[in-house]
C-alpha cells in the first residue's frame, strides 16, 4: 500500500510504502539465509532489523540492507 501524505510548503509530495511486519520479517530472514546464516542467526538478524523499523528507526533496519549486502560481498561481514 502506498500513502501520499499532504504536500509540504515546497509542493513536494513524499510517498511512504507500508509493508506488513510479517512480510518484512520474512524478507529479512530470507536475506540472512541467502547469505549463509543458520536459523538462529537469521532469526536474530530478522528480529533486530524489524524491531528498529517498527520503532521508526529505518536507518537501523531496512536502510541497512544494501550496506549489509556490500559488506558481505566484500568479505567484511559474514554470518
Roughly what fraction of the amino acids lie in strands?
Answer: 5-15%
Question: Could you tell me the mean pLDDT?
Answer: 89
Beta strand count: 2
| Radius of gyration from the alpha-carbon trace, in angstroms | 15 Å
Q: Tell me about the largest β-sheet.
A: 2 strands, antiparallel
Strand order, biggest sheet?
A: 1-2
Q: What structural class do you assign from the helix and strand content?
A: mainly alpha
| Shape annotation | elongated
Q: What is the rounded distance between the termini?
A: 32 Å
- Indicate the low-confidence ranges by residue numbers: none
Helical content stands at 40-55%
List SSEs in N-to-C order. Answer: EEHHH
Number of H- or I-type helical stretches: 3
What does the model show?
With 79 residues, this protein is mainly alpha-helical. The chain starts with a strand and ends in a 6-residue tail after the last helix. It has helices at residues 21-34, 39-54, 65-73, and strands spanning 2-3, 16-17. The chain contains three helices and two strands; from the N terminus they run ββααα.
Amino acid at each position: 500500500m502506498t500513502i501520499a501524505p499532504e504536500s509540504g510548503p515546497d509542493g513536494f509530495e513524499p510517498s511512504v510504502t507500508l509493508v506488513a511486519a510479517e512480510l518484512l520479517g520474512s524478507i529479512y530472514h530470507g536475506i540472512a539465509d541467502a547469505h549463509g546464516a543458520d536459523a538462529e542467526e537469521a532469526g536474530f538478524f530478522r528480529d533486530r532489523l524489524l524491531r528498529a523499523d517498527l520503532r521508526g528507526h529505518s536507518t537501523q533496519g531496512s536502510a541497512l540492507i544494501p550496506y549489509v549486502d556490500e559488506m558481505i560481498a566484500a568479505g567484511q561481514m559474514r554470518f
